[in-house]
Amino acid sequence: MAQKKAHEVDGWLARPDPATSVVLVYGPDRGLVSERAAAFARGSGLPLDDPFTVVRIDAAEAEAAGRLLDEARTVPMFADRRLVWLRGAANNAALTSAISALIADPPEGCLILVEAGDLKKGTALRSAAESGKSAIALPCYTDDARGVDAVIDEVLGAAGLSIALDARQLLKANLGGDRLATRSELEKLALYCAGMSEVRAEDVRASIGDASKLSADDAVDAVMCGRIAEFDTLFARHLASGSPPFLVLSAALRHVQTLQLMRAQMEAQGKTPAAAVASARPPVFFARRRMVEQALQHWNRKMLEAAADRLHRAILKSRQHQAVAEPVSRQALLALAIEGARAAR
């Protein structure tokens, strides 16, 4: 099977298999899909600004499938290889058929790079890439806490900045829904802190959009503890500040993932909620510990799994259809707040 697990993708991109001719990069994190596709394109060594060598095709074009086949079979004239870069692909029958034909009969002197959205296991396009000998499928899922940490260290380290622990926790609560958005916010923070040696919590509050005056943590804690009216007020204030709604969704997803790890420790090691919170690494911000303990008391493993799935779907939908991002985000979070209220009874 020509597929990689999420944690193996960056390693493969650093040393791609030269026998691979079709690369499918897919997943719910559109920013990460774009970033990794660009990394592969740069790694090809081809001049990305040369339209004769690197051909970009939008999957929304009416003749995208036919053009993809024509461009892939075109003999390169000014280089040893060409790169055909298809963006915005989905599980479209015509495109899937064209890509499957290129996997079955790889074109000589041509790399095919396909960017796609979230493809469920078993969909035709994903299956074609996973089962083809000349293709590979690279998944891109929303950054978890470890992934956000890695991007923070990469961007701030390049700027010669370290970051205090409380500042890191505050920063992580407001990043991670989209890789490109995360990088943009971190680069803005690095510029704000230029000339300093360490990023402090007050710097994060002053620079990061959602962390300015209003932290997503408060809204997330209200959701998980079933405080419906409080959540409604905090979410409205968040939107009034001009911050995008998906940032609360991404903060909620990271918090649920953290709760899942703590809950697993409680069940496997017999820990109390207080003990699980006390032993958490990275440590839970002191002002939130009581709320996190309360959430652990009321949310079991099955409920947390369902909550994570709901948030994943809401994040994807809010990014795909930005016109309805606000109601989609509010509906998903409100549903979890109602679930939290029921569990607390």
Spell out the blueprint of helices and strands.
Elements: H1 9-14, E1 22-26, H2 30-43, E2 54-58, H3 64-73, E3 82-89, H4 93-104, E4 110-116, H5 124-131, E5 135-139, H6 145-158, E6 162-163, H7 165-172, H8 179-192, E7 198-199, H9 201-207, H10 216-224, H11 228-240, H12 246-269, H13 273-278, H14 289-298, H15 301-320, H16 325-344
Parallel strand pairs: 1-4, 1-5, 2-3, 3-4, 6-7
Helix pairs in contact: 3-4, 4-5, 6-8, 7-9, 10-11, 10-12, 10-16, 11-16, 12-15, 12-16, 15-16
Task: Describe the structure concisely for a colleague.
This protein has 16 helices and seven strands. The chain is α/β, with parallel strands linked by helices.
For CATH, the homologous superfamily of the largest domain is named as P-loop containing nucleotide triphosphate hydrolases
Q: Give helix % range.
A: 55-70%
The number of domains is 3
Query: How many beta-strand segments?
Result: 7
CATH topology value of the largest domain: Rossmann fold
Structural class: alpha/beta
In DSSP terms, counting alpha (H) and pi (I) runs of 4 or more, how many helices? 16
Name given to the CATH architecture of the largest domain:
3-Layer(aba) Sandwich
Widest beta sheet: strand line-up: 2-3-4-1-5
The rounded Rg comes to 22 Å
- Measured distance between first and last alpha carbons: 48 Å
Percentage of β-strand residues? 5-15%
Mean pLDDT equals: 88
The CATH class designation of the largest domain is Alpha Beta
Shape: globular
Largest sheet: 5 strands, parallel
Order of helix and strand elements from N to C terminus: HEHEHEHEHEHEHHEHHHHHHHH
Low-pLDDT regions: 210-214
